[in-house]
Amino acid sequence: MKNIVGIIMGSDSDLPIMNDTVKILEEFGIANEVKVLSAHRAPDLVSEYAKSARNNGLKVIVAAAGGAAHLAGVTAAHTTLPVIGVPIKGNVEGLDALLATVQMPPGIPVATVAVNGAKNAGLLAIEILAVEDMELSKKLEEYKKSLQIQVEDKNKKLEELGVEKYLAEKMGK
After folding, report:
1. Where are the domains of the chain?
2. Are 64 and 48 in contact (CB under 8 A)?
3. For 72, what's the count of Cα atoms within 13 Å in the CB-facing half-sphere?
4. For residue range 58-113, what is the model confidence (pLDDT) as tens digits?
5. Is the pLDDT of residue 56 over 80?
6. Which of 24, 63, 79, 171 could form a disulfide with 72 if both were Cys (CB 3.0 to 4.6 A apart)?
7. What's the CATH code, domain 5-132?
8. What is the pTM of this model?
9. Which residues have a Cβ under 8 Å from the Cβ of 32 and sit 6 or more positions away?
10. CB distance 80 to 53 below 8 Å
C-alpha cells in the first residue's frame, strides 16, 4: 500500500505525541510515512520533501513542531497539498508553538489542531481523504457513533455508581 499521509516532525522528541496520528491512521487503514525534518536545522530537506510530496503519492501532510514551530508553515509554502499543523507543548505550555502555527500569512494556509492534538490531526487528515472516498466516510461515521456510545456508557455508569464511587473506580482506588 502506498503512503498517502506524510507525518513530519521537527524533532524525534515529538514522536511519542505524534504516534497518536500514526495509530489513528492505521486504525482506519491509511498508509503513512513518518520523518524527522527540521525547518531550522534542515530547511533544504523540508523544501525537497514538500515539493516532491504529491509526486510521491501523498495527499495530506501532518507537520508537528514545538517552540518556534515553523515546520508546518515552511512545508505549506512548498506544496499545494493540505498541511495540518500540530503545535507541540514546550517551554510555555505550547502557546509559542500554537501561535507560530496558526499565524500564517495570506496565501499559505495551515490547518491547526490543539496543542499536542496529534490524534485530531490524524482524524482531520482522514476527513480530508474521505471527501472522495465513501468507504472511508462510512468508517468515520462508525467511529463517531462509537464516540457517542462511549459517552452514553459513561453516563449510565455514573448514574449507577454515583460520583464518589465512579471517581474512585476511575482513579483505580
Report:
1. 5-132, 136-170
2. no
3. 31
4. 999 999 999 889 999 999 999 999 999 999 998 899 999 999 999 999 999 999 99
5. yes
6. 63
7. 3.40.50.1970
8. 0.93
9. 3, 4, 5, 6, 7, 21, 22, 25, 26
10. no
Identity of the amino acid at 171:
M
Residues 126/24, Cβ–Cβ less than 8 Å: yes
CB atoms within 10 A of CB 47: 17
Mapped onto helix, strand or coil, the DSSP state of residue 85 is: strand
Burial class (CB in 10 A: 0-12, 13-18, 19+), 30: buried
Query: pLDDT at position 1, please?
Result: 61
8 A C-beta contact, residue 33 and residue 57: no
10: nearest Cα among 87, 114, 124, 80: 87
Percent of the chain residues topping a pLDDT of 90: 93
* Grid cell of 26 as nine digits: 492505521
